[in-house]
Design a protein that fits this description.
Elements: H1 3-26, E1 40-41, E2 48-50, H2 55-75, E3 86-89, H3 92-97, E4 106-109, E5 112-116, H4 123-143, H5 145-151, H6 154-164, H7 175-181, H8 209-226, H9 228-239, H10 244-251, H11 256-265
Parallel strand pairs: 2-3, 3-5
Antiparallel strand pairs: 1-2, 4-5
């Protein structure tokens, strides 16, 4: 092996290692294989696990969990195919260690729901928060972590989670505020695929997360209200592993461009329901 070839191979190896370090340290994958043995199982509901110091909050989670599970199974037309596991974190630092944003109320990674015990996660909000995260978990359980990330676009995942949870994750932006922002140009155009890493979020469009979540909910609700049977078939097809692009164009043959135009000119003006789809 000559020196030039060895140099190129070493350079490529260093590039691969650098990317791997960045992915492991600065994306949610940093917590993908992190163990949870230090969490204690809640005795009255073995699906709930908690860190030391947050047992009262874990008890509230256990009380809210059956209602949240029922909401998701009823509104996404499928049961959970695998056990549900909830991990209650005692601090934002724990949430970050498992791959979540420090400010998040919760997130899903590797078939596990992690919740923050922060003060904003009040008992009044807890069912909505749980249902939001369980919406993600249920689809991920059906299609796998990679398929969920790669196949389903983030606006649909988040919009669906807000819709089925009755507004969970978008509480700081009202539907009226989200509708007013759209004709002013503070909005987004929906992608048709997801991303394995660096998934699109509100920041991708210059929007706050709650504004993006609420607008995504309005668009998903528009699709549901336009054709409830097509919407149900879309969710069932996605849970069966269908390509989002193919399933969407099959159920909504008008296409995303026309649907978004209709949504922006009239559909977004409808007051969203806070009840089940």
């Amino acid at each position: 092996m000559n020196g030039s070839l060895a140099h190129r191979l070493l350079s490529r190896l260093l590039s691969v290692v650098t990317v791997a370090v960045l992915v492991a340290g600065f994306t949610p994958l940093r917590g993908f294989w992190r163990g949870t043995a230090h969490f204690t199982e809640f005795p009255l509901d073995r699906r709930v696990h908690f860190e030391a110091g947050v047992e009262p909050f874990a008890a509230e989670v256990a009380m809210a969990l059956p209602e949240a599970v029922a909401m998701v199974e009823g509104r996404q037309f499928r049961s959970f195919p695998q056990p549900v596991d909830i991990y209650v974190c005692a601090s934002p630092a724990t949430l970050v260690a498992y791959g979540g944003p420090a400010a998040a109320g919760g997130f899903v990674l590797n078939n596990r729901v992690f919740l923050s015990a922060k003060l904003q996660n009040t008992p009044e909000r807890l069912v909505r928060l749980l249902a939001h995260e369980l919406s993600h978990l249920q689809l991920e359980q059906h299609v796998g972590s990679l398929g969920y990330a790669w196949n389903i676009p983030s606006w649909f995942k988040e919009g669906l989670a807000v819709l089925v949870s009755g507004g969970g994750g978008a509480e700081s932006v009202s539907p009226a505020e989200a509708r007013e922002a759209i004709p002013a140009g503070r909005t987004f155009f929906p992608a048709m695929t997801g991303r394995l890493l660096f998934e699109k979020s509100g920041a991708s469009y210059g929007l706050s997360e709650h504004m993006w979540y609420r607008q995504s909910e309005l668009l998903v609700q528009f699709l549901r209200d336009k054709d409830a049977a097509a919407f149900r078939r879309l969710l069932v097809d996605l849970a069966d592993g269908a390509s989002f692009r193919r399933a969407f164009t099959t159920e909504y043959p008008a296409g995303i461009d026309q649907l978004v135009a209709e949504f922006r000119t009239g559909g977004a003006g409808k007051k969203p329901s806070q009840s089940a789809p």
